[in-house]
Amino acid sequence: MKNTITKQNTSLEKINEFSKSLGLSKEDQTIFKVISSSKNEKVLSLKNGSHENPEPWFIIDENDEVHTIVSISSIKDMLENLRKLRKENFELRLEKAIFQQVPIDFNDVWVVAMDEIKKQMINGANDFSIDLDRLIDSIKKEHPNLFVDVQAFLEQKNKQ
């Protein structure tokens, strides 16, 4: 009996900790317990909350493992948000790589870089596999007119 109470406390602690990180109050938690009714059937027993409470809902199985249930629309929203964050992250990394090479016109370099990235992606690359620093270095070598020649600028400045 004591072991069962300890398990329940552990699973509830996990649920409370995760709920806190989501900003979900204890009153808004929906918690189900899995109960075996036969070899091929399991019954969900509502221990806390309501089916009208916000997601995720929590399920505590016979092994005190905590699982969650979320709707397909919630998963779709999460994946869309992850896709947007991934795109923003990629664009920020590209901006940084471009600015490090001191472009004369950022937008011109951006267009050339995006064309090259599209070519690489057609050939099977993904945004994480592209070394953006190396890409911008190669663009700078192919199109030096798009970048400030810092070395020449410093030499000219020293001559004055």
The parts where pLDDT drops under 50 for at least 5 residues are: none
Give the total of beta strands. Answer: 4
Which percent band covers the strand fraction?
15-25%
- Overall shape: it is elongated
- Strands in their spatial order, largest beta sheet: 2-1-3-4
What's the helix count?
5
Q: State the secondary-structure class.
A: alpha+beta
Order of helices and strands: HEEEEHHHH
Q: Report the helical percentage.
A: 55-70%
Give the termini distance in whole angstroms: 88 Å
- Main beta sheet: strand number and arrangement? 4 strands, mixed
- What is the mean predicted local confidence, pLDDT? 89
Radius of gyration, taken over Cα atoms and rounded to an integer in Å = 27 Å
Q: What are the SSEs and their pairings?
A:
Elements: H1 2-22, E1 31-38, E2 41-48, E3 57-60, E4 66-69, H2 72-100, H3 106-122, H4 132-142, H5 150-159
Parallel strand pairs: 1-3
Antiparallel strand pairs: 1-2, 3-4
Helix pairs in contact: 2-3
Brief synopsis:
By secondary structure, this protein is of the alpha+beta class. It is built from 5 helices and 4 strands, in the order H-E-E-E-E-H-H-H-H.
Description:
The protein is 55% helix and 15% strand. It has helices spanning 2-22, 72-100, 106-122, 132-142, 150-159, and strands at 31-38, 41-48, 57-60, 66-69. A four-stranded mixed β-sheet has the order 2-1-3-4. Helix 2 (72-100) packs across helix 3 (106-122). The longest helix is centred in the middle third of the chain and has 29 residues, at 72-100. The chain is elongated and about 85 Å long.
